[in-house]
Amino acid sequence: MGPGVNKEKMKPRGGSKCYILSVTLLLWNINRLVIPVEGFSLRSCRISYNNAICTKSKLTAVPQDIPPTVQGLDLSANQLIKIQSSDFKHLSLLTQLDLNRNRISKIDTGAFANLISLKKLNLNNNKLDKLVDNLFDGLRNLMELRINNNHINSVGSATFTSLRSLRFLDISCNKLRSITKFNYTLQYLPNLRVLSIKRNDLTVFNSWQLTNRSLPLTSLDLSQNSIAAFRITADVFPNLTWFNMGASFKKHKMIWDVRNETFLSQVSTLDISGLHLPDDIKAFLGSFSSLTSLRMNGMKRNRLPALINISCTIPSVTTLQLRSNNLTFVDSDMFQLCINVTELDLTSTYITNIQDEAFRSIRGLRILSLSRNRIASVPAATRNIPTLSELDLSTNLIASLGCHDFANLTKLRQLNLYNNKISALQECLFKDLIGLQVLKLQNNQISILNGAFKKYLPNLRRLHLNENKLTAIEYGDFQGLKSLQNLSLHQNQIQSIKKGSFIGLTSLTDIQLQNNEIKQEEIKTCFNVLTNLRRLELRDNHIKYKDSSALPNPPFSQLSLLETLAIPAQHYRGRSQLPRNFLQGLTNLLVFNIRNIQLLYLHKDMFNYTPRLQTLDISSNELKDLSPDLFSPIGSLKSLYISRTNLQSLDFFIEANLTNLEFLQARKNMYSVISEEVIKSLPALIYMDFQGNSFTCDCDNAWFLQWTQNNTNTQVFDAYNFGCNYPPDYKDTKLLDLNINSCSVSIDFIYFVSITSIILLFMVASFTCHFLRWQLVYAYYYFLALLFDTKHRNKQAPYQYDAFISYNNHDEPWVIRELLPKLEGEQGWRLCLHHRDFEPGRPIIDNITNGIYGSRKTICVISRRYLESEWCSREIQAASFRLFDEKKDVLILVFLEEIPTFQLSPFYRMRKMLKRRTYLSWPRAGEHTELFWKKLCQALKSGEDHGEDRFRLTVVDRP
C-alpha cells in the first residue's frame, strides 16, 4: 500500500463491464457462502510440486495462508525468532519442514504436535540453546532430525521421547560439553542408525556416559571435538560400520582405551583425519579388524609414510584417502605395502613429482585421484596399470599430452583432464583407451583436435570439450566415436561447422553448442546425420533469419526423434524472424526454446510440424500479439513462457484451445486486464506467473481479483505484489488491496434487502388491513364495477327487477312481513331477494353484482347487524360504485333502528353519504307508516338524476 492511501477509500472506478461483473460476482458469492475454500495466492510463498517454498522472504512469523494439503514447507533463510504452538496446527499432511538459517531461539512445547506425518525436520543454523523435555511431541513418524550449528548446551532427559521412528540425528556444531544426557535420550530411539555429534565441546568420550545398553547405530560422527580420551568398556556399538573421530583440536596425543578388540570389529569405514594418534598406532588400528576404507586427510602431526605402511598391513583395507597432506614427492617406497588397495585418493597433496615406480606394487589399483596438485605432465607412474578404471588428473598444470601418456590403460573407463592448460590433442593420444566411456577435457585451452577422435575410443559415451578455444569443427572430427551419446562443445569460439562434421555419431542423443559464434548458414545440413538426437542446445549463438519465408532445406528435417531444441540468446542484436518451416521434421519435439532472439513475428504455421510440443518458451521477444491459430496444432501444450513479449492482451487464449496448459509464465508485459473468459479458457492451469505487470484497478479486474484470492486449483504466483498503474490515483498501490464492493452485489446485502422488504411489506399489509380495510374493499368493488360497466354499457336490455334489497339475515323477518307485502304485494314492484332470486352454484359476488346492476334501484335495509356483516358491506359498496360510476339515483337507504353518528365513524363511506343525502327511518315513522311507504314508493318511482351524489327524498334530515 502506498503512503497516504486509505484502504477503505480504495473503491474502483466503474468500467463498462461493471453491471455484468456485478451479476457474475453475485453468483460467485453465493457459491462462496456454500463452499468455503482457501486459495493458492500466498503472500510470501509459492507452491511447487505440492511444496510451499517461502525461502528468503524476510518472514518474522510462520505464514498462516499455507494450504493444508502441502507435503513440504521450506521456511529457510528468513528471520523467524520463535515457533509458536499454533504455527503448524493445520499442516497434518506435512512430511518435510525446513527451518534452516533463521534466528529461532524458542520453540513452544507442542509446536510440532499436529505434524503427525512429518518425516524430515531441519533446524540447522538457528539460535537454540537447549532442547527441553517433550519438545518434539507428536512427531511419531519423524525419521530425520537436523539441529546442527545452534548454541545447544543441554538436552532434556525426555527430549526425544516421541521420536520412535527416528533414524538420523545430527546435533553437530553446538556447545555440548558432555554426552551424559544422551544416556537417557537414546533409549527412546530404538530405530536410530546415524548419530552425528561432531564439532561440539566434548573433551572425553566414555561409552557408559552415552548409553548403558547396545545401540542400533551403524554410523557415528565424533569428529572435530577436543577429545583427549576415548574409552569403550562395553559392546555398545555392535552394528557400527561407519565411524568418524578425526580432526581433534588437541595438541597432545589422545588416550585410546577400547577394552576389547571386538567392540569395533564391524567398522568398515574409519575417518581419523587430523587426529593426533596415540603412540601405538598398530594397536590403535588393530581395533578395526573389518576395516576396508581408511581416511587420513590432513595428518599434520604424524609421520605419514609410516602411517601409510601400517595402514596397508591391514589386509582388508582397499580404500585409502590421503587428501590435504603435504607429500610433494611420491616415491616407490610410499605405497610398497599397499598391495590390497584398489582406490587411492591423493587430492590436494601438493604433489609436483611422482617416481615412475610409485604405484607398481599396487597391483589391483582401480581408482586413482591426483586432482588439485602441481603436476606438469601426465606421470609415467600411471601408465601400464592394467586394472586402472578411473584416473583423475584434473586441476593440475598439464600443458601437453603425448602418445604414450595413457599406454596400456585398456580397462580405463573414466579419464578426467579438466582444468589444465592443454592446448592441442594428437591423433595417437587415445589409441590404447579402447574401454574409455567418459572423457572430461573441459576448461583447457584446446584450439585444435588433430583427428584425436577419428579412429579410437570406440566405447566413449560422454565427451566434454566445453570451455576451450575451438573455432571450427572439421569434416569427420568425431567419426570414430560410434558409441558417443553426449557431446559438450559449449562455451568455445566455434564459428564454422563443416558439412559432415558430425558424421559417424550415430548414437548421439545430446549435443550442447550454446555460447559459440555459430550462424544460421552453418546449421543448414550439418545435423541431418544425427538421426538419434534427442536434445540440441544452440543458445547464445548468432542464428538469425530476416523473414519467415519457407526454407528449401530445413535444418532439422531428419531429426524426427529430437525432443528438446533451444535457440535463445542473451545479447541478440537486430530484429529477426523464423522461417515458417523451421521446425519441419520435428514430429516428436517436446520442448522448444527461442527466448530473446528479438522475434517480431511467428507465422501461424510455425508449429504445424510439432504436434507433441509440451513446453514453449518465446519470452523476451517483441511479438506484441499472438494469433490463436498459432496454437491450434499444439493442443498438448502444458507449459508456456511469454514474459517480456510486449503483449497488449491475453485474449488470444480464448480461441487458442489450450485446454491442457498447466503452467503459464507471462511476466512484464503490457496488458493490464485479465478477463474471466481468458481464465476459463485454461481449465487445466495449475500455476500462473504475472509478476511485473501493472494492472488496471477498476471493475474490469474485479472478477480476476476475486478469483485470485479464492480459487483452489490455480496458484497465482506473487499475487499480493501485483501493482496498479491506472487510474492515476492508485499508483503504487496493490491490486489485492482494491475494494471492489461497488463492482458487485453482495449476497449478504441481497439477503438484508430481501428480508427487510418482506418485513416492511408485511407491516404495510398489516397496517392497511387494520386501518384501510374498507378503502381496499372499495377499490376492489370499484374495479369490478368498471369491468361490469364496460361489459354491459352497450346493452339495451330492460331491468329484470325494480329494486335489489340488501339486508342482513337477522332483519329478514321485517323484510318478509313488512317490506315484501307492501312493495311487491300491494304496489306490484318486482324485488330481488338473495334468499329467493340468487342463481344456485354461481359465485356470490357475481350474484350480488348481477342483482344490483339488474335492478333499477338498490334498497339497503340498515341496522347494527347490517353494518357488522361482511357480505352486506360488499353489497352497499357495489351499489355505491354503481352510483358513482353511472351517476344515477339508484341508492335508497332505510334505517331500521337509530344508529348514532359516532358509531358510523368506522364505516367512512356510509357516514360520508349520510352527511350529503337524506334517508328513510322506520323507527321515526312510528304509527304513521303510510307516509314511510308512500315516500319509499315515491323513491322507487323517481327518475334518474345526473347530479353527483344527491338523493331528493325528504323524510328526515340527518346532521
TrEMBL record:
Domain TIR: 799-940
Membrane topology listed for this record: Single-pass type I membrane protein
Keyword tags: Glycoprotein, Immunity, Inflammatory response, Innate immunity, Leucine-rich repeat, Membrane, Receptor, Repeat, Signal, Transmembrane, Transmembrane helix
Keyword S-adenosyl-L-methionine applies: no
SUPFAM superfamilies cross-referenced by the UniProt entry: L domain-like, Toll/Interleukin receptor TIR domain
InterPro entries associated with the record: Cys-rich_flank_reg_C (IPR000483), Leu-rich_rpt (IPR001611), Leu-rich_rpt_typical-subtyp (IPR003591), LRR_dom_sf (IPR032675), TIR_dom (IPR000157), Toll_tir_struct_dom_sf (IPR035897)
UniProt GO MF annotations: signaling receptor activity
Cellular compartments annotated: Membrane
Membrane-spanning ranges: 749-772
UniProt keyword Signal, yes or no: yes
GO BP: inflammatory response; innate immune response; toll-like receptor signaling pathway
Main location: membrane
GO cellular component: plasma membrane
Family named by the database record: Belongs to the Toll-like receptor family.
Entry protein name: Toll-like receptor 22
Species this protein is from: Micropterus salmoides (Largemouth bass)
